[in-house]
Specification:
The chain has helices at residues 50-72, 91-108, 117-129, 165-175, 186-195, 216-226, 240-266, 281-293, 310-322, and strands at residues 2-3, 11-16, 21-28, 33-40, 79-87, 112-116, 135-139, 144-150, 153-159, 208-209, 212-213, 270-274, 297-300, 325-326. It has nine helices and 14 strands. With 349 residues, it is an alpha/beta fold. The chain has two domains: 11-122 and 306-342, ATPase, nucleotide binding domain (Nucleotidyltransferase, domain 5, 2-Layer Sandwich), CATH 3.30.420; 130-304, ATPase, nucleotide binding domain (Nucleotidyltransferase, domain 5). Helix 8 links the parallel strand 12 (270-274) and strand 13 (297-300). It is 40% helix and 21% strand. The longest helix has 27 residues, at 240-266. Helix 5 packs across helix 7. The structure holds adenosine monophosphate (AMP) and magnesium ion. Residues 19-21, 141, 276, 307-308 line the site of magnesium ion. Residues 19-21, 141, 276, 307-308 line the site of magnesium ion (MG).
Length: 349
């Protein structure tokens, strides 16, 4: 990134398009979120098809942009910069958002700000809850990590070694015949089923390795459990509700164990939960108990800012822009595996 002098601008428009969601948000420089509009690509069947997701984003971009400007009630010429999710994420999806952002920035003759998607999830959590210097569990469809700020960057204290927590839930749910609906992601459907279970805990793989965890074996075992023949005399049959319950208990206990160890190590005074899976009440309960045991406050990002959204990109864009960090078009290519611990965050003292 290149440093420039701060301008007198007041609003940043942020574009999020890293996976299945296309979102546009508008934030002012003091942290007021003026707009947060989005539309999700819902696959006909199976998981996210990157090219289909990109096509969806291109189709809705115009109307979501318009909606966001209407919601914020500001004219494009009042914008001081355009922020976009530069990575990590799916290439075709990211590129669509980046193309829209470049076109807007060039047309309006204002700077472009490439934002790290994971940093944005942490920053929106801090803004909307008031959490100060938290240890953060960021759990979503594409990422699962425990981070905290140290020496200029968000450092990773533990993370998944394979699939993300949300992805584990989504793949299991699809195998179980659940379908995502607008406003009801598969993770939320699993949560509802688990709430209606008999709470019979089925033993499933629990894999924590040092400070990291692995969810793929758990996913395979939970899926196989679904396929146990109901007529078999030697193997018990399980209701879908109980499998959902057991999957949640194992997966959430694993991320909670890593989070607790990081909390004990860092002695942070606030634990923040952010990302799409943050909406889950059972995960919230487990983490709030851990926070209590370690005399830390517990904060959860509000639901509308938990899942991927444009407001988090807009807000993080203002933070970067205020520190003179802009992204020249020539350096605005997307970064599919851009780790959170590779990003300088000079706005944090
Ligand atoms: P994101 O990747 O941040 O957009 O978040 C999407 C992920 O959050 C998907 O994997 C969803 O299944 C998951 N998710 C959303 N709501 C819930 C919930 N209530 N419980 C568990 N997972 C959820
Ligand atoms: Mg998403």
């Amino acid at each position: 990134m290149v440093k420039i002098a701060r301008s007198d601008g007041k609003y940043c428009l942020g574009i999020e398009s890293s996976a299945d969601d296309f979102g546009v948000g508008i934030a002012d420089f003091d942290g007021t979120l003026l707009a947060n509009c989005s539309d999700s690509y819902i696959p006909q069947e199976g998981g996210i098809h990157p090219r289909e997701a990109a096509r969806h984003h291109a189709e809705v971009a115009d109307s979501i942009l318009q909606q966001a400007l209407n919601q914020a009630d500001i004219k494009p010429n009042k914008l001081s910069c355009i922020a976009f999710s530069q990575g990590p994420g799916l290439g075709p999806s990211l590129r669509t958002g980046a193309t829209v952002a470049r076109a807007l920035a060039a047309y309006l003759e204002i700077p472009l700000v490439g934002v790290n998607h994971s940093v944005a999830h942490i920053e929106i959590g801090k803004l909307t809850t008031g959490a100060q210097d938290p240890l953060t569990l960021y759990a979503s469809g594409g990422n699962t990590m425990v981070t905290a700020y140290t020496a200029g960057r968000y450092r990773v204290f533990g993370e998944t070694l394979d699939i993300a927590l949300g992805n584990c839930l989504d793949v299991f749910g699809r195998e179980a015949g659940l379908k995502a609906k607008q406003g009801l992601p598969i993770g939320a459907a699993i949560e509802q089923l688990a709430q209606n279970s008999q709470q019979t805990l089925i033993s499933l793989p629990y894999v924590v390795k040092g400070m990291d965890l692995s969810l793929s074996g758990l996913l395979t075992a939970a899926t196989t459990t679904l396929q146990t023949p109901k007529t078999s005399t030697c193997q018990p049959s399980h209701s879908l509700e109980d499998v959902c319950y057991s999957l949640q208990e194992h997966a959430f206990a694993m991320v909670s164990e890593v989070t607790e160890r990081a909390l004990a190590h860092t002695e942070k005074k606030t634990l923040l939960l952010t990302g799409g899976v943050a909406a889950n009440k059972r995960l919230q309960t487990m983490l709030s108990l851990i926070a209590e045991e370690h005399n830390a406050a517990f904060s959860v990002v509000p639901k509308q800012y938990a899942t991927d959204n444009g407001a988090m990109i807009a807000w993080t864009g203002t933070l970067a822009y205020k520190f003179g960090l802009i992204t020249p078009i020539a350096k605005s290519m997307v970064k599919l595996r851009w780790r959170v611990d590779k990003v300088d965050v000079p706005w944090i003292q």
